[in-house]
TrEMBL record:
The gene is hemC. Residues 13-213 form the Porphobilinogen deaminase N-terminal domain. Pfam families: Porphobil_deam, Porphobil_deamC. Tetrapolymerization of the monopyrrole PBG into the hydroxymethylbilane pre-uroporphyrinogen in several discrete steps. The modification S-(dipyrrolylmethanemethyl)cysteine is found at residue 248. It comes from the Bacteria. It is an enzyme of class 2 (transferase). Residues 232-325 form the Porphobilinogen deaminase C-terminal domain. Gene3D superfamilies: Periplasmic binding protein-like II, Porphobilinogen deaminase, C-terminal domain. Monomer. This is Porphobilinogen deaminase. It comes from Georgenia alba.
Length: 336
């Protein structure tokens, strides 16, 4: 390869990231993908966030998006050009001036159990102590195993895993995070969506940039790593969360999958769970969506029609399911 002359080579894309091991591996993967897809140089910029500093319980920390807020401020202030977030930690309310330009291919969205002695949820000892900081996971654990003692835990993935060698029998974590950290060996059971409905957007990353950069070379570079099936699925999942007016720590789960065919079908399962594990309201629904090939053709010919002809199908599926759930008392069940 011949190096372009320095005068014409654009400055590296500066990609903002949180400093945790998980955030760094995630951002490195995205940075490499953008670099490979666009041929541009990329560099990582570390941004410290309140969520990383505080050891307070996640559900008591200043509300939605503590992890995302500092990264977004850095992006708006021009300290970086692109921010990489875990989608499930991103509030559904849009930030003026910022746009999620790419949702790359998502990893396995499911939750997993990491237990002592290779145990599964069904064969944990009576009254076992299980750690999670997530009201959604706690409610579903109690639903299947009312005898468990569910403890609120915090900290990064390694810290939480270590507790299974100390005072806990098990912890529940996102499979995607363990995959990225090379820690899949610690998984003793992958929990299906019928047992543990994942958080909306779990396993997906969101690549955000300033809206003003969308139509330029930066937007063009980032959009290359967008993945249609992921975008469809997470739009439906997050529409559930938004319509229920629930935050990212509410006991709400949603999981959508795309099934091939002519037309393709997007299937959504959504649920709200009473914190004590007593009640649950779970609904499934599906809708026809254009095939990936049709979406690619539209993106080429009439990109302005994508919202109307593609993405709205997913959003409306999520809204419809959430509205049905609200009519059946979802807000009361989940304590929203
Ligand atoms: N809330 C913390 C968080 N944010 C994203 C992930 C994992 C990866 C993902 O879901 O994208 C995790 C850890 C976990 O829930 O186990």
């Amino acid at each position: 390869m011949t190096a372009p002359t320095p005068a014409t080579r654009p400055a590296p894309l500066r990609i903002g990231t949180r400093g945790s091991d998980l955030a760094l591996t995630q951002t490195t993967t995205v940075a490499e993908a953008i670099g490979a897809a666009s041929g541009r140089d990329v560099e990582l910029v570390r941004i410290r966030t309140e969520g990383d500093r505080s050891s307070a319980s996640l559900s008591t920390l200043g509300g939605a998006g503590v992890f995302a807020a500092a990264l977004r401020e850095a992006l708006l202030a021009g300290e970086c050009d692109v921010a990489v977030h875990s989608l499930k930690d991103l509030p559904t309310v849009p930030t003026p001036g910022l746009t999620v330009a790419a949702l790359p291919h998502r990893a396995d969205a499911r939750d997993v159990l990491c237990a002592r002695d290779g145990r599964t949820l069904a064969d944990l000892p009576q009254g076992a102590r299980v750690g999670t900081g997530s009201p959604r996971r706690a409610a579903q654990l109690r639903r299947h195993r009312p005898d468990l003692e569910v403890l609120d835990i915090r900290g990064n993935v390694e810290t939480r895993l270590r507790r299974t060698e100390e005072d806990l029998h098990a912890v529940v974590l996102a499979r995607a995070g363990l995959t990225r950290l090379g820690l899949l060996g610690r998984v003793t059971e992958t929990l299906g969506p019928d047992i543990m409905l994942p958080a909306p957007g779990q396993g997906a990353l969101a690549v955000e940039c300033r809206t003003e950069d969308l139509d330029g070379p930066l937007g063009e570079s980032v959009r290359r790593i967008d993945h249609v099936p992921t975008r469809l699925a997470v739009l439906a999942e997050r529409a559930v969360l938004r319509t229920l007016e629930a935050g990212c720590t509410a006991p709400v789960g949603a999981y959508a999958t795309l099934h091939d065919g002519e037309p393709a079908r997007l299937e959504l399962r959504a649920g709200v769970f009473a914190p004590d594990g007593g009640e649950a309201l779970v609904r499934t629904a599906s809708t026809a969506v254009p095939t990936e090939a049709d979406v690619a053709a539209l993106a080429e010919e009439t990109p302005d029609a994508l919202d109307e002809q593609v993405w709205n199908h997913a959003v409306q599926l999520g809204e419809r399911v959430a509205e049905e759930m609200l009519a059946e008392g979802a807000a009361k069940v989940a304590g929203l």
